[in-house]
Amino acid sequence: MEEPRVKNAIISVSDKLGLADFAKGLAAAGVRLYSTGGTRRHLESSGIPVTDISAYTGFPEMMDGRLKTLHPKVHGGILNRRDNPKDIEALEKYGIETFELIVVNLYPFEQTVARADVTDAEAIENIDIGGPTMIRAAAKNHQFCAVVTSPDQYAPVLEQIQKTGCTTLSMRRSLAQAAFSKTAAYDLAISHYFAERSADIEFPQKLTTSIDLKTVLRYGENPHQKSALYIDPKSKTASAVNARVLNGKALSYNNLLDLDNALSLVRSFQEPAAAVLKHNNPCGAALGQTPVEAIRKAMEGDPLSAFGSILGFNRAVDKDSAEYLSTPGLFVEAIIAPEFTPEAVEILTTKPKWKANVRLLECGSLAVPPAPWQIRPLEGGALLQEADNLPDPEEDWTVVTDTRPTEEQMRDLRFAWHVVRFVKSNAIVISKDQMILGAGAGQMSRVDSVKIAVEKSGDRITGSVLASDAFFPFPDGLQTAAEAGVTAFIQPGGSRNDAVVIEACNKFGLPMVFTGRRHFKH
Question: What is the SS3 assignment for 157-191?
Answer without folding.
Answer: HHHHHHHHCECCHHHHHHHHHHHHHHHHHHHHHHH
